[in-house]
Amino acid sequence: MTGADGEWSGRCGYTRGDGQDWWENKDGGDGVTVELGAGWIAGVGGKQSNPVWELAHQSNLRTFLSDYSNTHYNIYDHSGKIFPSGIAADSYKKAVDSAIQKLRNQESNLDDDDSILSETTPTQKTPIELAIDFILHDFEMAEVEPISTYVDFGDREYLVADERGYEYLLYKMAESFLDTCEGKIMNSRLQLNKVVGEIQHSRNGVLVKTEDGCFYEANYVILSVSIGVLQSHLISFLPPLPRWKTEAILNCEVMVYTKIFLKFPYKFWPCGPDKKFFIYAYHRRGYYTFWQHMENAYPGCNILVVTLTNEESKCIEAQTDEETMKEAMEVLRNMFGPEIPDAIDILVPRWWNNPFQRGSYTNYPIYVNQQLLGNIKNEYSSHANTQAKNSVGTCMEVIFQVLKQAKFYSKKSERKMKAKLF
């Protein structure tokens, strides 16, 4: 197993303050751990058990239920007034009904790309409609997609707020097959800071070359980098991947999902059971729209988190943190008044500009036909030696796909060894 940087957990990355000023709890002592990447366990409470939720329980991961039921009653306009509950509820219902109708139309026109594209054509909307559209679609899925990925698992979501980080779940999994010591993986089979530059594949196996001049040989390789990395051509293949596979990769969309953390000297926002989240309605869709405080997870931390996606995320990554803080403070003062304090620090992850990530996760575009989906899902192999399949979506799909492919190739190797023995 190789990893391009010093972290083995990929997009389950986190930051811990360890007592630094803006991470420090007001009661002193422990620093606050915030998740830069994966932050929720989605799909809990359904008829089918979610394996990620089971892993979280086994790891005693600290989680909090995210209740979005009252979110659309906490929508602020540009002047700081909260939209009346009746208007908000009506706008929310219309948005949900519209999403359901679009879904039905898409299901009945799966093979008609023109029909599907016409359904996704944006229409002019009011600020509150844009805000609700963002809540329903971008905040959850980072794109306009009204379908829940976790229908069988349930619709509950839990925020991960554990000082060990979301990655601790992955660490506990790794304990079953890698040597560990004092919370660290100590095994030569895991090689970090190894940037893969080239993959050669033939009937004799696979040869992986890294930028520092190392070589790794194997009968099979599971490639788990993001489609964004494949689209960037960071890794070259010899011989090249076939056209049907590269076209499938290039037709996938790379989603960017950014959580910006702002630390304040004191709390000035409303708190309570129905005040975990609040929304800023603006004529620019997704512009500092979705806010949440961290008081439930870390009382006294005085931290706000705002979520941006896609083009807004890319704009943020292209500017300085100081410029981002200025924009965020302007929005907050529109919502809560000019007397609120300035943020004393800011943390801005940059997934899009990270050459080893090139986005937060990938997604099939809504107009993709079934043949293209098959080309993405199907393995590409030179005499079944190279796996070039990519996980699409969130942490959960990554775990599912890697386990599935590992099991597949384990059985294949076992059959090959038995054939040699007998």
TrEMBL record:
Q: Which Pfam families match?
A: Amino_oxidase
Name the pathway it acts in.
Amine and polyamine degradation; spermine degradation
Q: Which InterPro entries match?
A: Amino_oxidase, FAD/NAD-bd_sf, Flavin_monoamine_oxidase
Instruction: Give the highest taxon in the source lineage.
Output: Eukaryota
- Keyword Oxidoreductase in record: yes
The keyword Oxidoreductase appears for this protein: yes
Q: Where is the Amine oxidase domain?
A: 28-371
Gene Ontology terms describing biological process: polyamine catabolic process
Sorted keywords for this record are: FAD, Flavoprotein, Oxidoreductase
Recorded GO molecular functions are: flavin adenine dinucleotide binding; polyamine oxidase activity
Cofactor needs:
FAD
Q: Which residues form a coiled coil?
A: none
Family classification: Belongs to the flavin monoamine oxidase family.
**What's the protein called, per UniProt?**
Polyamine oxidase 1
- Which species is the source of this protein? Forsythia ovata
